């Protein structure tokens, strides 16, 4: 049997299969790792949308795809498929959901049966990346925006107009706040200039007064010197030695 015929024995998955197993933090070893994956697959089949760490979500997705693919291909009368469903689904009532609900939903699908979406992580918070793993066709609202089919619905049109009006009002408030800040700044600058001019004028007045006082002091000193000189001359003239010299 050649390679082409061998590949037909196993249904091909529509998701990327990791060549190596992911390492999980579990003290129980490989058995505990499988138990964690079984719990995740069971929760996904039951709730159809779960949020968990990205590595575990990506690893569980491959096992879920294989389980649904074999259920579609072989049905509920295949012994190996029933044993696999009994192993991976820890809640046995979900086996009925797998074959009676999910198989009719996905039997005409040409794409993957599951979808994984990276979820935002809170900051500050855990360092692990989060993801949302879901089955396609679930009854929950879509996590991805669909602007092609829902854009013209009345509630979306009203929401768009309300968003535009809200943004316009916010822009007006921001513009008014900026204008008020500019006016306040201009008034502050004018007051600063006026106070600066007053201070300059006062400094000039003080300088002029000091210069006038200095000049007056000089004049007074000169007058006093002249008076002293005149007095000394008069004393010399009145003395007898002055008469002899004459």
Please describe what this structure looks like.
GO terms for molecular function: structural constituent of ribosome. This protein is mostly helical. It has two domains: 10-144, Alpha-Beta Complex (50s Ribosomal Protein L17, Chain: A), CATH 3.90.1030.10; 151-238. It is built from seven helices and three strands. The chain has helices at 3-7, 30-47, 54-74, 79-88, 93-106, 154-238, 240-245; strands at 49-53, 114-119, 130-135. A three-stranded antiparallel beta sheet has the order 1-3-2, with helices on one face. It is rod-shaped and about 155 Å long. Mean pLDDT is 82; it is low at 242-246.
Which helices and strands occur, and which strands form pairs?
Layout lengths: L2 H5 L22 H18 L1 E5 H21 L4 H10 L4 H14 L7 E6 L10 E6 L18 H85 L1 H6 L1
Antiparallel strand pairs: 1-3, 2-3
Give a quick precis of the structure:
Helices cover 65% and strands 7% of the residues. The chain is mostly helical.
The CATH topology name of the largest domain reads 50s Ribosomal Protein L17, Chain: A
Please state roughly what percent of the residues sit in beta strands, choosing from under 5%, 5-15%, 15-25%, 25-35%, 35-45% or over 45%.
5-15%
Which regions are unreliable across 5 or more consecutive residues at pLDDT < 50?
Answer: 242-246
Mind telling me the C-alpha Rg?
48 Å
User: Strand count, sense and closure of the main sheet?
Assistant: 3 strands, antiparallel
Alpha-carbon distance between the two ends: 160 Å
The ordered string of helix (H) and strand (E) elements is HHEHHHEEHH
CATH superfamily of the largest domain: Ribosomal protein L17
């Amino acid at each position: 049997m050649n390679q082409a015929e061998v590949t037909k024995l196993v249904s091909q998955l529509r998701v990327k299969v990791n060549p190596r197993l992911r390492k999980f933090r579990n003290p129980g070893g490989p058995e505990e790792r499988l138990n964690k994956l079984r719990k995740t697959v069971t929760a996904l089949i039951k709730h159809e949308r779960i949020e968990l760490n990205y590595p575990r979500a990506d690893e569980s997705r491959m096992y879920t795809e294989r389980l649904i693919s074999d259920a579609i291909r072989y049905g509920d009368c295949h012994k190996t498929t029933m044993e696999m469903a009994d192993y991976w689904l820890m809640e046995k009532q979900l086996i009925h959901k797998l074959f009676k609900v999910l198989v009719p939903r996905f039997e005409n699908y040409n794409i993957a049966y599951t979808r994984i979406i990276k979820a935002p992580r809170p900051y500050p918070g855990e360092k692990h990346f989060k993801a949302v793993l879901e089955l396609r066709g679930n009854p929950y609202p879509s996590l991805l925006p669909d602007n092609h089919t829902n854009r013209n619905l009345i509630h979306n049109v009203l929401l768009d107009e309300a968003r535009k009006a809200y943004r316009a009002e916010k822009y007006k408030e921001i513009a008014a706040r900026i204008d008020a800040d500019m006016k306040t700044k201009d008034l502050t600058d004018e007051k600063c200039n006026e106070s600066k001019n007053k201070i300059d004028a006062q400094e000039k007045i003080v300088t002029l007064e000091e210069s006038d006082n200095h000049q007056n002091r000089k004049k007074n000193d000169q007058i006093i010197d002249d008076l002293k000189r005149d007095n000394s001359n008069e004393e010399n003239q009145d003395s007898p030695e002055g008469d002899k010299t004459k």
